[in-house]
């Protein structure tokens, strides 16, 4: 233990559990950075599950570094997870130890750095919907009903902006600005990585969204409180009038577009942008990716089923009816 750790220990009463303190401080810092309650809960659940395993072994998170490393490797691989899940578990544990070391809250380095990560194929599960199918399915929604108007507006905003599920679910009235031309600008105050994003909706989609909101709120629309929900529940299960939750939005996506994976709409947005002639840098900006290389790999994954020479191959080999 170095002199700084000795000094920091001396500043706290002896009865203070430094592991508990480190966990509380780390979770608070993570919540402040991401602004996401779901992220904080996921991190808390992960570190709690790992700590239980460590305690079952007679240690705590500040225990012998070699033992912690081996326990982390065992715990991350429990249940035969996908490589991405395995690595994500380790990333959360590593985040805790890195924070604790930076703040000198624990007398150990980061034992998770010694656990080998598993190889992951970037965006292996990324698969966009067919644009023609999406167009046909959206047309089938009965927008004369309030539920239909909401579902159409919700899915259209998701497809037009490429925003993530959590960002759609937390959308509130204060994020909308209506221009003099009637177009709606959405201010996404906190997207993944803490980024601030803006999207101006095209005229027809702005109209569809505002028509839905007028039907929901009527004359009170102009005087709504900032936290008023955009996507309201009309169910009679006790949630009526409240904001739709993540699961409800996934259910709408499944009912209307045939997939419960709302992130598929983000894939579809990116693919349609590329097919429309957008530059990779433009797609990067709309998606909020940190680098062009990330967007390049992402687009390559979305297009991996396409072979520009497929028709020529079929013709040369006589692969016809």
Write the layout of secondary structure elements.
Blueprint: H1 3-10, H2 18-34, H3 37-56, H4 65-76, H5 83-102, H6 131-139, H7 146-161, H8 165-169, E1 176-178, E2 184-188, E3 197-200, H9 203-217, H10 246-257, H11 263-275, H12 280-287, H13 292-302, H14 310-317
Antiparallel strand pairs: 1-2, 2-3
Helix pairs in contact: 2-3, 3-5, 7-9, 7-11, 12-13
Summarize the structure.
By secondary structure, this protein is mostly helical. Helix content is 54%, strand content 4%.
Features:
321 residues, mainly alpha, DNA polymerase, domain 1, hpI Integrase, Chain A, 2 domains, three-stranded antiparallel beta sheet, globular, disordered N terminus
